[in-house]
From TrEMBL:
<dbReference type="InterPro" id="IPR001314">
    <property type="entry name" value="Peptidase_S1A"/>
</dbReference>
<dbReference type="InterPro" id="IPR043504">
    <property type="entry name" value="Peptidase_S1_PA_chymotrypsin"/>
</dbReference>
<keyword id="KW-0720">Serine protease</keyword>
<dbReference type="Pfam" id="PF00089">
    <property type="entry name" value="Trypsin"/>
</dbReference>
<dbReference type="InterPro" id="IPR009003">
    <property type="entry name" value="Peptidase_S1_PA"/>
</dbReference>
<keyword id="KW-0645">Protease</keyword>
<keyword id="KW-0732">Signal</keyword>
<dbReference type="InterPro" id="IPR001254">
    <property type="entry name" value="Trypsin_dom"/>
</dbReference>
<keyword id="KW-1015">Disulfide bond</keyword>
<dbReference type="InterPro" id="IPR018114">
    <property type="entry name" value="TRYPSIN_HIS"/>
</dbReference>
<dbReference type="InterPro" id="IPR028994">
    <property type="entry name" value="Integrin_alpha_N"/>
</dbReference>
<dbReference type="InterPro" id="IPR033116">
    <property type="entry name" value="TRYPSIN_SER"/>
</dbReference>
<keyword id="KW-0378">Hydrolase</keyword>
<protein>
    <submittedName>
        <fullName>Trypsin-like serine protease</fullName>
        <ecNumber>3.4.21.-</ecNumber>
    </submittedName>
</protein>
<dbReference type="InterPro" id="IPR013517">
    <property type="entry name" value="FG-GAP"/>
</dbReference>
<dbReference type="Pfam" id="PF13517">
    <property type="entry name" value="FG-GAP_3"/>
</dbReference>
<dbReference type="GO" id="GO:0016787">
    <property type="term" value="F:hydrolase activity"/>
</dbReference>
């Protein structure tokens, strides 16, 4: 087994402090010619043009591969990054995923000093100094659970903060809106992997970026004994490559992107991590599964704050809340609130600190039924709640029975039994379709019990809303698959279960759209909505029995990069549209529902919130 980092022996000697899990493998690529540019004192200033990636270019110019591929065109992958040593050579790939963040593999950078790293962004030929951008690294954030689970190189992810933002366009990462993007990287889809790594197992790298197409494999295949067995962990790994071998990523490609071509351009769903050799039969490349719920959530929570919407002071108008995140022991882990005045949101106020680490899923909901929404966090093993006092969240903390949550689950908060207190609902992301509920007692949680046997299996987008107006929240899922886009409902019986799953709309929120639930018109029943990338928002109004009737309510709201949601900003019992841009401006946009057929003109309701 080996990771796909490029670390020739000479490089290890030059950086003895930079130990690597893969030391023992370095000999496999010792025929790579290493230049002498790795002395920090030798080349303190980036020798634009001279940084060859430590490769013998004459040997690397053979017209092949990554393994079995071919050269990329100039400008084809503007988000591609070469991770190298300052004044030295390439050793890993990476990808620009936000203006100030580069994604790579944990095993490439763990334990390193950020000051020793240099990034080349958007360069195809590592020798061509006229192209791309050079950036230094101010911070390395390694996944806190890297290498702590059962499989090989679990959670092999790291983010590098850039010293100054890149001007290149970042690549989109899979799963930004729960699971709707899963459709683009289903098994058998042909994915693309790119890198400057070895052209064959044990061979030299390439100065010219290489690309190759590899089929996405099923988890079942990758977990077979003759493939990777238990070393393959489906929660965090995805395998790609022909079963017969011949096409693969290899040493020097580690940290680079595994990409799929969607209707909207490139999307990254994997990070080059490890494999047995390169391009061997039944030994495909194994990639970090960044499209999984939990890894996407972690990535997102490093790059951005997490916004939420709820009425935290109990005046009937929904307010906005943001969770800043941070790591255990490091912070910041603040929670800010901006209260609605009926039209816009006031100044941000600090209402809590030390809440929701990176990767934990924060939410808001009224745990004790006093009309004020409280803050929640779904962690690896528990559900936490802190009560609102109307001016902060220091009204007491409650924790679920230990082990009741799983970081792969999709957690939701809603009142399923109609007692006015929001309950915790957990949708299993392991494909079983189990739905569990923990009822709120107002001062604690009841036992975790199964309320549905099969609802919203992996790849769907589950939500809760009272669609029949009996004050009990029902479960709703959007299938969002390649050949179907159903909205399916199972009604709460108020005490122990959700009923039979029934299709209420047979075409709503197909893959690539962002679904939501809310009450948009003047009845007491919750409806559904979907945000389309072109700015259209459709609403499906509930008839309370068996149907959501779809209509276009606006054609000018939101941008795909926004976090799109709904809430009742003005307290008229109708949900309005809310978009958090989460960019440098971090504007919050609102469009008010007219209660019948449309949303008003979008306006900025807060000028800087949840960047
Ligand atoms: Ca309020
Ligand atoms: Ca409350
Ligand atoms: Ca309840
Ligand atoms: Ca209901």
């Amino acid at each position: 087994m080996n990771t796909r980092i490029y670390l020739p022996a000479a490089l290890l000697l030059a950086f003895p402090a930079c130990d690597d899990p893969d030391d023992s493998e370095a000999g496999e690529i010792d025929d790579v010619v290493v230049d002498d540019g790795h002395d920090a004192g030798d080349d303190a200033i980036e020798p634009v043009g001279g940084s060859t990636g430590g490769l013998d270019l004459t040997a690397a110019l053979a017209p092949q591969t990554i393994v079995g591929g071919g050269p990329a065109s100039e400008g084809e992958y503007p988000f591609m990054v070469s991770v190298g040593f300052a004044g030295g050579g390439h050793f890993c790939g990476g990808s620009l995923v936000a203006p100030s963040w580069v994604l790579t593999a944990a095993h490439c950078v763990q334990g390193r000093d950020p000051a020793t790293l240099s990034l080349k962004i958007g360069r195809t030929d590592l020798n061509n100094a006229a192209t791309g951008e050079i950036r230094s690294v101010s911070q390395i954030v390694v996944h806190p659970r890297y290498q702590t689970e059962a499989g090989d190189y679990d959670n092999d992810l790291a983010l590098l903060a850039l010293s100054s933002p890149s001007t290149r366009t970042p690549v989109e990462i899979a799963g930004p809106h729960t699971a709707s993007d899963r459709v683009w990287w289903m098994p058998n889809v042909n994915a693309t992997v790119i890198g400057w790594g070895a052209l064959w197992e044990g061979g030299p790298g390439s100065a010219i970026l290489q690309e190759v197409q590899v089929p996405v494999l099923t988890d079942t295949y990758a977990a077979q004994a003759h493939v990777y067995g238990a070393r393959f962990n489906r929660a965090v790994h995805v395998a790609a490559g022909p079963m017969a071998g011949g096409l693969d990523s290899c040493q020097g490609d580690s940290g680079g992107p595994l990409l799929t071509w969607t209707a909207y351009g490139w999307q990254q769903f994997g990070v080059v991590s490890w494999g047995d050799g390169c391009a061997r039969p039944d030994k495909p490349g194994v990639y970090t599964r960044i499209g999984s719920q939990r890894l996407h959530r972690w990535l997102r929570s490093v790059i951005h704050e997490t916004p939420a919407v709820g009425d935290v002071n109990g005046d009937g108008r929904d307010d906005i809340v943001t969770f800043t995140h941070g790591d255990s022991g490091a912070g910041p882990l603040d929670v800010y609130v901006a209260l609605s005045n009926g039209t816009s949101f006031g100044a941000a106020q600090l209402w809590a600190d030390w809440w929701a680490h990176r990767g934990h899923a924060p939410m808001v909901g009224d745990f004790n039924g006093d009309g004020r929404d409280d803050i929640w966090a779904f962690t690896e093993a528990d559900v936490y709640v802190a009560l609102s006092r109307g001016y902060d969240f220091n009204g007491g903390v409650y924790v679920s029975p230990y082990g009741s949550a799983d970081s792969d689950d999709i957690g939701r908060v809603a009142d399923v039994n109609g007692d006015g207190r929001d309950d915790a609902v957990l949708f299993a992301a392991d494909g079983t379709g189990d739905v569990h509920v923990m009822l709120s007692t107002g001062t604690g949680f009841g036992p975790k019990t199964k309320w549905h046997e099969y609802f919203a299996p992996e790849g769907e987008t589950p939500m809760l809303a009272d669609v029949n107006g009996d004050y009990r929240a029902d479960i709703v899922t959007f299938t969002q698959s390649m050949n179907g886009a159903q909205a399916i409902v199972a009604l709460s019986n108020g005490s122990s279960s959700f009923g039979a799953a029934t299709v209420w709309n047979s075409w709503f929120a197909p893959a690539g759209e962002v679904p939501a639930v809310g009450s948009f018109n003047n009845d007491a029943r919750a409806d559904i909505a979907t945000f389309v990338r072109n700015g259209n928002v459709y609403v499906g109004t509930s008839n309370g029995v068996n149907n959501f009737a779809s209509a276009l309510w606006t054609s000018s709201f939101g941008d795909w990069n926004d976090t799109l949601t709904v809430g009742d900003v003005n307290g008229d019992y109708r949900d309005d549209l809310i978009a958090f841009t989460q960019d440098q401006n971090a504007d919050v946009w609102v469009a008010l529902s007219n209660g019948a057929s449309g949303f008003g003109s979008p306006y900025v309701a807060h000028s800087y919130f949840a960047p």
